Each structure stands twice: as structure tokens, then as C-alpha cells.
Amino acid sequence: MSAFTIFLILIVIVAFLLVVVIMVQNPKGGGLSSSFGGGGTQQLGGVKKTSDFLDKSTWFLATALILLILASNLTIDSGAVVESKAYDEDDATNVPATLPQSTDDNTTNLNDSIGG
């Protein structure tokens, strides 16, 4: 397994965790933190602590995601040459330099078709 594959798996896991942490939060102060009790902000392990944990974990996961993406870019093998399937060098040498000449039997004069 290459280093890029390992980074890719870690990126998917961190992105999933980030989505879960963001979905647990409620922008109006509800969410997971409101289910633990009242509005007291000085409770030990209560609403305030849960909200702080979710906020810090969001920032940590977002930073980890960015760092993993940047690190995965370093592991991409830039020395590998990928051949294009759309361009074949052998076929390019067989292309004629000019178009074939058309015969007068199959073509009509533009002036005759316009009527002038």
C-alpha cells in the first residue's frame, strides 16, 4: 500500500468525523450541548464544556484535514509518465501533409448554385 493510499484513507476518515462533529452542533446553542442540562455556564462537564469540546474538535479536525491534503500532495509520484491513449505517435506519422484533391465530378461550382 502506497503512502498516497494511506493519506487518502486518513482524509476520508477525518472528513467523515468532521461532518459528524459539525452536524452534532447547533448554531443557535442547541445540539448535543443542550441535551446535557440547563443554561448554567459554570457546570463542570455540562453545557459549556461540551460546547468548548465540539468547537475545539471542529478546528482540530479541519486543520488535520488541510494538513493531510497538503501532505498527500507530496506523496504523489510526479516522476511517473502516463502515456496518453488519445494520441498515438505512430498514427501521427501516417497523417498526409495535404488533403486529397477532389474531382470535379463530385463538386459543383459555388457560383452556379447561387445563381450568379
Overall morphology: elongated
Tally of helical segments = 4
Mean pLDDT: 74
Summarize the helix and strand pattern as letters: HHHH
Helix content: 40-55%
- Give the percentage of residues in beta strands: under 5%
Poorly predicted regions are 40-45
The secondary structure category is mainly alpha
- By DSSP, the count of extended strands is 0
Distance between the termini: 74 Å
User: Major sheet: size, sense and barrel closure?
Assistant: none
Computed CA radius of gyration, to the nearest angstrom: 32 Å
SSE order and pairing:
Blueprint: H1 3-24, H2 47-75, H3 89-93, H4 110-114
Question: Overview of this structure, please?
Answer:
The chain is mainly alpha-helical and 116 residues long. It has a domain at 3-75. The chain is 53% helix and 0% strand. The protein contains four helices and no strands. The protein has helices at 3-24, 47-75, 89-93, 110-114. Helix 1 runs antiparallel to helix 2. Residues 40-45 have low confidence and may be disordered.
